[in-house]
């Protein structure tokens, strides 16, 4: 399929070159005729002023010829580079989703979107070109049912992919007119693509965009979030706490080993999939590139789950996630948060005291929580020590858990697309034209969407 896309693009580029050459020959012929007439007229005048004008005219003609030649060479380089890539004779830093990015780009331009920086190909895009997005990249391929999440970013909707009726979650993010918003969208797309190799991080099926919104098609976690479980059940059974938190440990260690700090861990962002396994989601404010001793600073996260160093605007790294992890563990074990949240960061910091541990909580869990909820970030478990070796997880077989061979203690109710009623998704009020977000279009190569 990728080969056919490349061949198709080569044909389009060849057609572009032919059009440019015909136009160039026509302009050249007209220029020569004008030049002959101009020279005949100029020869009749011998003044110094007229000679200077003729010299400037000749220089402009040469410059135009040079520009036309460069334009043709630029297009020819585009075709030759595609051919070299196909043969494998020249290595270029291109991702396997480049053909999809190209299709999405042309589709976006033809629909009236702004492509950002102009290129010779962009301004010559033929208006008659019939570009059709692959089904996963077309919003018309999805049926919407209900809103399952909201935030400052936009909303998450339950939907299904029409060709297969597979349930999915679609995250819609508004493309605000500022560069930081666009970079956050690109960053989330990068993290989601990388997350495919971890079973406990939410996986993307596709990503695409309209003129005003970006869309992430994600796997649907039918078990809901840990927050919904707390609201429904209060505290959770010990075995479920061990199982869920052990899978979160694997997911966090995967993210941290790839230089990613989540920065907004909370029960709302920990989902349970149809098989009963954990999925860490929502990377909208995550930080990238935090390897080794590299730190970041800045207030981020949800009140009640933010680490002391975050509240004080000090530098921090993955240790902030381990603090949030400790807060989540305490909450699902007791049904309550260990610390009082506050809209004021400094006030929230002073509200952090040693939490009270109920009598029914095991000594092992109390010990683990005390080491996770350590105010000194350098002494906090996760940053220091091996959390997998803690006595609370003595019964966890980590190799089996990583391969999802351990039976989950709870399995959610199975639902299908026929169990929901279709609705029309909300249309953004602001429909002003936005630029296209680069490096966004994506379809998971392991997603069997054509079945």
UniProtKB/TrEMBL annotation:
Region (Disordered): 24-97, 411-433
RNA-binding keyword on record: no
SMART domains documented for this protein: S_TKc (SM00220)
GO cellular component term of the entry, any: cytoplasm
Chain ranges of the Protein kinase domain: 142-393
Keyword vocabulary terms for this entry: ATP-binding, Kinase, Nucleotide-binding, Phosphoprotein, Serine/threonine-protein kinase, Transferase
Any one GO MF annotation of this record: protein serine/threonine kinase activity
Ranges of residues in domain AGC-kinase C-terminal: 394-451
InterPro entries, per the entry: AGC-kinase_C, Kinase-like_dom_sf, Prot_kinase_dom, Protein_kinase_ATP_BS, Ser/Thr_kinase_AS
Biased amino acid composition, Basic and acidic residues: 40-75
Residues given in the record as ATP binding sites: 172
Similarity annotation: Belongs to the protein kinase superfamily.
Protein name: Protein kinase C theta type-like
């Amino acid at each position: 399929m990728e080969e056919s896309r490349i061949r198709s693009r080569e044909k389009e580029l060849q057609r572009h070159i032919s059009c440019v050459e015909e136009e160039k020959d026509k302009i050249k012929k007209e220029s020569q005729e004008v030049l002959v007439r101009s020279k005949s007229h100029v020869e009749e005048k011998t003044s110094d002023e007229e000679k200077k004008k003729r010299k400037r005219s000749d220089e402009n003609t040469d410059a135009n010829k040079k520009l036309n030649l460069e334009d043709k060479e630029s297009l020819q380089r585009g075709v030759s580079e595609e051919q070299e890539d196909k043969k494998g004779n020249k290595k270029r830093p291109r991702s396997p989703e480049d053909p999809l990015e190209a299709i999405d780009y042309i589709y976006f331009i033809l629909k009236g979107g702004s492509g950002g920086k102009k290129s010779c190909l962009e301004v010559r895009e033929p208006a008659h070109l019939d570009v059709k997005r692959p089904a996963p990249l077309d919003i018309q391929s999805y049926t919407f049912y209900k809103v399952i999440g909201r935030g400052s970013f936009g909303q998450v909707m339950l939907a299904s992919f029409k060709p297969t009726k597979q349930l999915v979650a679609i995250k819609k993010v508004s493309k605000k007119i500022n560069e930081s918003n666009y970079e956050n969208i690109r960053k989330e797309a990068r993290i989601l693509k990388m997350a495919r190799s971890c079973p406990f991080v939410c996986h993307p099926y596709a990503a695409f965009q309209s003129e005003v919104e970006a869309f992430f098609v994600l796997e649907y976690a039918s078990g809901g979030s840990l927050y919904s479980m707390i609201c429904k059940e209060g505290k959770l059974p010990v075995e479920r706490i061990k199982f869920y938190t052990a899978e979160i440990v694997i997911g966090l260690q995967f993210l941290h080993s790839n230089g990613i700090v989540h920065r907004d861990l909370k029960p709302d962002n920990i989902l349970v999939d149809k098989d009963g396994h954990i999925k860490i989601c929502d990377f909208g404010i995550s930080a990238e590139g935090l390897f080794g001793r590299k730190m970041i600073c800045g207030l981020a996260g949800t009140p009640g789950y933010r680490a002391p160093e975050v509240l004080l605007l000090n530098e921090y790294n993955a240790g902030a996630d381990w603090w949030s992890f400790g807060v989540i563990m305490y909450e699902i074990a007791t049904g309550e948060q260990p610390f009082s949240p506050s809209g004021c960061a400094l006030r929230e910091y002073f509200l952090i005291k040693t939490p009270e541990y109920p009598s029914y909580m095991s000594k092992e869990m109390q010990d683990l929580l005390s080491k996770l909820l350590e105010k000194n970030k350098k002494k906090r478990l996760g940053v220091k020590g091996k959390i997998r070796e803690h006595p609370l997880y003595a019964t966890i077989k980590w190799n089996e858990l990583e391969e999802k061979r351990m039976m989950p203690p709870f399995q959610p109710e199975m639902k299908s697309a026929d169990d929901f009623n279709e609705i029309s998704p909300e249309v953004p009020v602001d429909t002003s034209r936005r630029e296209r977000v680069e490096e966004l279009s994506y379809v998971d190569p392991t997603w069997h969407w054509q079945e």
